[in-house]
Amino acid sequence: MTSRLFTELGLSPEVLKAIDTLGFEQASPIQAEAIPVMLAGRDVVGQSQTGSGKTAAFAIPAIERTDPAHPVVQVLILCPTRELAVQVAEEVFKLAAGKRGLHALPIYGGQSYERQFQ
Prior knowledge:
43% of the residues lie in helices and 0% in strands. It is mainly α. The mean pLDDT is 91.
């Protein structure tokens, strides 16, 4: 696996700014391999160590491929635990900071859905 700068991956200025704000310049190997493939609309099955940037590897292309002009659910990310769902939603929120109209919402069992939607 190779590592590349985020600026070499064909990302929008809004997403690049969010990545820069988070303090990242270089994509991890999983990100460098997965992001271009997913931006092209192809599926990816990836495996990598904890802390290697897997969330950003799938979240960045998902953010790039959504169209905030269409106010419908465009991406669904399934997580095995409530804690991971909250963590992933927070990461998506940070990465999508410059994309107006894009929202991330973790929804999980054990809580009122109405309350979570508010």
